[in-house]
Write a structure and sequence with these properties.
There is one protein chain. This protein has 331 residues and is α+β, with helices and mostly antiparallel strands. It has three domains: 92 residues, Rossmann fold (3-Layer(aba) Sandwich), CATH 3.40.50; 157 residues, 2-Layer Sandwich (D-amino Acid Aminotransferase, Chain A, domain 1); 64 residues, ATP-grasp fold, A domain (Dna Ligase, domain 1), CATH 3.30.1490. It is built from eleven helices and 13 strands. The strands form three sheets. A five-stranded antiparallel β-sheet has the order 11-10-9-12-13. Strands 2-1-3-4 form a four-stranded parallel β-sheet, sandwiched between helices. Strand 1, helix 1 and strand 2 form a beta-alpha-beta unit. Helix 1 crosses helix 11. The radius of gyration is 19 Å and the shape is globular. It starts with a strand and ends with a helix.
Length: 331
Amino acid sequence: MDKNVVLIADRVADFDNITIHNRDLECIPPTYFKQIYDGLSKISPQVTCYNSPKNFCRNLDKHKNDVVLSIWSGIGSKFRKGLIPSICEANDICYVGADPYVHILCQDKFMTKVLASQFGLISAKSILYYTEKDIPGIYQLQLPIVVKPNFEGGSNGISQKNLVNRYEDAISLTKELSRCFQQPILLEEYIEGMEISTSIIGTYNEIDLMDASQLIIGEEDYYTATLYGFEAKVQEPENRKLVPGSKFLTSDLKKSFEQLFYQIGKTEVLRIDGRIDKNGDFRLIELTPDAYLGKRGSTTFCAAQHNISYEQMLELILQNAVKGYLRNRRN
């Protein structure tokens, strides 16, 4: 690849003493940063790093012909994921990943369900809590219930304790998360099943890769009372592993995923998380257009199943971003 890369990442030290009040679990720890920086350095003439949109903005003139890859997450704002794509759009700079609209839409867990339903993807029954007037709606959900912040990712605000078996506990936790995160709280019925992540890499008119991985936590592969919270994701990563999940991708499910990918808008990478229930039906959990690109992530795992190395995967994603950018300029 002959283009320089701009890598934007809000780096943190390794996480310690995590609670459901943490708001920084999407930030970038040293291991992930080193993996992606080293990988990009092998395929690009130069990699320049910034730690915030503000610092990037101060140097825009240096990067008019570069490709921007943002793994910056930000904290708090419900539109934070759209900031860097918006900066790039406004300054005609090529960037990797979803456009501002797609980022903001997928950051909203409730609206993601509405979007996915247009493509035949069903999710758990849910409600949004804004104020105490919404409490009666909680009783319309079947127990057990999952309680989580509506605009967060990276397991911010989500632990095993967010799976509750009593309405009183659901209400108490909802109020606690509402005070902490200052945003709507999503309550949804728990989905039993096998957890799969489908990764798609492609462009506006071609899919280069679509495959799935299955998440195994401990020895458990079918979850009846388990959440993929910060315990397994951050505190005990050695207790989880990925195995091939392509057997779950039926022709109908693939078709729905393809339609979603092509219609959602600009994004070179999309991860679709969900569970396969006891009847073999897929139930959506979330859409992630800024998928984790570390070496232990599901997207990298799926690429490896097709003999695509880590560096080759990064280069493919970057090249697809350039293709889309050049197409838009011609139009």
